[in-house]
């Protein structure tokens, strides 16, 4: 018997489908999605805050590098920067 990772004849899992009994209003869903995209595109305060945080981190890195709160602040800045870089609509 072959191990699962060596077996070349593995079939994909079954796909279960069902008929939905709920009525979905596509126009409401479309407007909601458009509102979400518009909200995500209007995040200039986050960019300004990120610029200020970057300057603070650069200026006080030598003084507070061993402080736990400073390290958490730095981690928060890194996560925020990754979020701002990966925003939808910036492609």
TrEMBL record:
- Ranges where the Nucleolus and neural progenitor protein-like N-terminal domain occurs: 5-76
Q: Which Pfam families match?
A: NEPRO_N
Q: InterPro entries of this UniProt entry?
A: Nepro_N
What domain of life is recorded for the organism?
Eukaryota
Record protein name field: Nucleolus and neural progenitor protein-like N-terminal domain-containing protein
Q: What is the lineage of its organism?
A: Eukaryota, Metazoa, Ecdysozoa, Arthropoda, Hexapoda
